[in-house]
Every structure is written in structure tokens, then in C-alpha cells.
Amino acid sequence: MANKEKISEELLLEEEVLKQSEIILFNDDVNTFDHVISTLIDVCEHTPEQAEQCSLIVHYNGKCTVKTGDYDDLKPRCSRLLQAGLSAEIV
């Protein structure tokens, strides 16, 4: 049983170390679905289907995680989303 507990502890520790940041996209009354979709494809490297799904989630829920990863990778992506007129932040 002690071996099982040790493995569980190691997995929990590993999860804490691998914590990643997220870009959250927020709904607004300005941007069109087409603009949001094309921006997500360009900036976040989404497939058209992913981008469409994210745009619908943002529209109906008010926000959506659009990209997860290392902060250093997400920072320039978030800046590009903001430059495109979208509302986004890294958490």
C-alpha cells in the first residue's frame, strides 16, 4: 500500500509543476463571428471547427478558454488577439 501512496504523491507533485496558463476570450457586442473565427484560426492555430465552437461558447457563455500552454507562448498570442480588437486575458 505504501508504494501506491508514493506514486499518488508523485503524480500530484507533477501536476502542480506542469500548471499551464490559459487565454480566456470574452464576449463583446462589436466583433462578428467571422472576425472572431478567422482571428482564432490565425492566432491560436485553431481548425475552422474549433474556432467556430469557441466563438459560439463565447457568445452564449460570455467567455471561453481558447488556448492553453506555457505563459511565454501565450503572451504574444494574447497580444495579437487584443490588437485584432478582441477581449482576452491570460490566467
From TrEMBL:
<dbReference type="InterPro" id="IPR003769">
    <property type="entry name" value="ClpS_core"/>
</dbReference>
<keyword id="KW-0645">Protease</keyword>
<dbReference type="GO" id="GO:0006508">
    <property type="term" value="P:proteolysis"/>
</dbReference>
<dbReference type="InterPro" id="IPR014719">
    <property type="entry name" value="Ribosomal_bL12_C/ClpS-like"/>
</dbReference>
<protein>
    <submittedName>
        <fullName>ATP-dependent Clp protease adaptor protein ClpS</fullName>
    </submittedName>
</protein>
<dbReference type="GO" id="GO:0030163">
    <property type="term" value="P:protein catabolic process"/>
</dbReference>
<keyword id="KW-0378">Hydrolase</keyword>
<dbReference type="GO" id="GO:0008233">
    <property type="term" value="F:peptidase activity"/>
</dbReference>
<feature type="domain" description="Adaptor protein ClpS core">
    <location>
        <begin position="22"/>
        <end position="84"/>
    </location>
</feature>
<dbReference type="Pfam" id="PF02617">
    <property type="entry name" value="ClpS"/>
</dbReference>
